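Q: Could you write out the predicted structure for this multi-component system? I'm mainly interested in how the pieces pack against one another.
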Amino acid sequence: MAEQIIFYLLAAVIALFSVLAVTAKRIIRSAIYLLLVLLATAGLFLMINYHFLFTVQVSVYAGGIMIMFIMAIFLTHRPGEDMKRKAVGKINYPALLSIAGAAFCGCIIVNNVSRAYNYLKGGEIGMRDLGHAMLGIEKYQYLLPFEAISVLLLACVVGAIMIARKEKEKEKEKEK
Amino acid sequence: MIMDYTIFILILPLLSFLAIGLSGTALKPRNAGAGGTVVAGLVTLLSYYTAFDYFTTQNVNGVWQSVTPCNFTWLNVGEKLHIDLGIMLDQVSVMMLVVISTVSLMVHIYSLGYMKGERGFGRYYAFLSLFTFSMIGLVVATNIFQMYIFWELVGVSSYLLIGFYYSKPSAVAAAKKAFIVTRFADMFFLIGILVLSYYTQTFDFGVLIPGDASLFGPALGTTFMGVSAMSWAMALIFIGGAGKSAMFPLHIWLPDAMEGPTPVSALIHAATMVVAGVYLVARLFPVYVGFTPEVLHGIAYVGAFTAMFAAVIAIAQTDIKRVLAFSTISQIGFMMVALGVSTGMGLSEHEHGGLGYMASMFHLFTHAMFKALLFLGAGSVIHAVHSNEMKDMGGLRRYMPVTHITFLIACLSIAGIPPFSGFMSKDEVITAAYGFSTGMGVWMTVIAGLTAFYMFRLYYSIFWRKEYKVRDGRRPHESPRSMTIPLLFLALLTVAGGFIPFGKFVTADGTQYIIRLNVTVAAISVSVALTGIGVAAYLYRRDNAYPAHLAKGFGKLYRAASNRFYIDELYLFITKKIIFNGISRSFAWFDRHVIDGAVNGLGRATLRTSQAIRGLQSGSVQWYAWVFLLATLLITLLAIW
Amino acid sequence: MNTSLEAVPLQAFLIVSLIMFFAGIYGFFTRKNMIMMLISIELILNSVDMNFAVFNRYLYPGEMEGLFFALFAIAVSACETAVAIAIVINVYRRFGNAEVNNIEQMKE
């Protein structure tokens, strides 16, 4: 009973705010709505007993990425400006497509998924098992992807710095 | 291998052609001429030695054997057919080797004097060597396809040499005409070869010549439009030969070919290339006489008609080289008739079926000598007088004694006066013609009379008729030694050649035959010849008005003969009006509008399509994502269904 | 604490992630500002993560593949966001605004 209520609450939050996020007029509001969506998703992860995933979602996604977004927004906008939406033709094709797509997939889900699965009871995944899986090298253990991801992170950090670097104007003046 | 030095007879002229041709202007003309002549001399010596070697060693039981010093497979076509390249020596090819190399050497020496100072001297000698190579390759061919290859090469050499003065439009046109006409005939030749080889599965002469009914059975059995495939093949092959040998109606190129330098006319269009057709029929003679005698009869009729036709035209020509050209056509007609009237291969005291073959080959041999002599003599005259027309000549016997005497000897020979070689060979031809039918014999005798007439008309017009008008103080003088020595040598051969016991060497089946003189035939032909000479002397020895009266008397006939019976005009009409206008124009229209239109249309369509789909590459990320999404949905839908 | 999840069916989770997904798609196509497009992409990625986690929980409760996939996807998304924002900043510096029709010209 309790789960159902919490679930529907969180689900409503997600649905409402995700739609609001893509239709907001001001970008900072859109960012805030996204933050709320991410937090609600974290809540859903908690509900299904994935504690580690919940932690990561909150710290990395809601915490790190959203901070980055907000920084970016400040760096690239004159504050307070209203965002213009793209001019849409007579028929709003994207909306039509989205709603149609949603309806279509929804039908499939509702009709078919129940045929495909049997609910299995399961327990919590302990941190020890998780840690072993993350850093192990046997089958179904993820040391290699872990290392690969770390290299990727390094590359992205370096790349982002390189791309976003300002040209050193002082050196230019010296050359002149 | 026996007699494998003969490969040098082929290779030396080829090397000479490459060396002289590729060195171009780096080689001084004098050296080019000397080099070419030396090579020709070597080839001649080798040919004589080959003949000596062959005729003293290759006799087995009184039959001449065919020797194949080398033969290697060049190309494999199909499972059993293969094209070889090699050398085959038998009595006919050895004789041809002697003829070709002798005349070629004479022409080489003669050209040292005649072509002196001409532009392209080196090129000339290169082409002469090429021609020698090609002609030798043709006569020593071991299989019919090799013969065809060298046949084409000979045609190319002829084209190059006729069009030697390439800045003269008439020469260029003549070269084109020669090449196209012979090429047209060669198309039939090729079809004939293919038909024959399809049924017999071989190109090789060694298999075809002793071929028997089992080899030709399938060819004889299949009929097409009522005639057996074999006859078709042999007739088509003959048409190819007729083109090269200027038989009616493919003779039109030979008179025009006189645009080339005179030594070229002597070598190619008198002695050697034009007899290639005769050689071809002689080569395949056992097949013709054994399996398709009706084609052989056809050959005889064609030859007879051509001989008469050409003789009549020669009477009315005023250009001395044209007279000689038509005389050549006529004499080749004789050779073809001689081959055509043969009824068998055997030649002995009892059997005379193969007389025609032997006579034809004998006449080929002697004709080469005296015709080359005639042409070289004419060249000497032209060199002195700087004109080809009879009206510019006359009384030249005072100024050019050597040329005069040698020319006279040649004329006597061609007219058939004993004891010159022409009499011997022509006699055999006419005897063979009588053996076929009296009508044919009479026909050929009449032509012999005409021959004597027009040849002496030519002789008297050049050397007697009227006194030579000395223009600009330039008196005609005798030609330099380089030109007179060949004349003398050829005159010697003309005189002595008649006494060669030809039957001992060249007969259809290889057995030896001693030539007998048929007194009746000889008497008739000599008297006819003397009559001809007499009439010519009467009309032309001294300048008088009789010839003009006679010409007026014959009226239309004379004009027609003088215009070569309008055959050239007929050809021009057919090609220009019918082929070019009718057929070519529609094809050209089709090509321009349909084919080009299709290609252009394709280009335009592509352009339009590309304009239309340019929008797909808009550069906008969202547009790309759109397309991406749509495509994914489409695929999903497809997958589900 | 083990919560029994018989009460909440799998389809419910899937519908939620579906809504998030199509909202993200709508936003991606409709917005001109590049940051807005990035936000939409985040929505899409988030919905995918949720899908993975939920499937893992409901169908293979003993296994951890889905969990790890979601984990790594979050990490990758972080990297990609960083680089994308760097690019957006560059575009802003060049053009004065961060709109996507500035970069439509493909270099030939």
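A: Regarding packing and overall arrangement: Residues 65-95 of chain C form the longest helix (31 residues).
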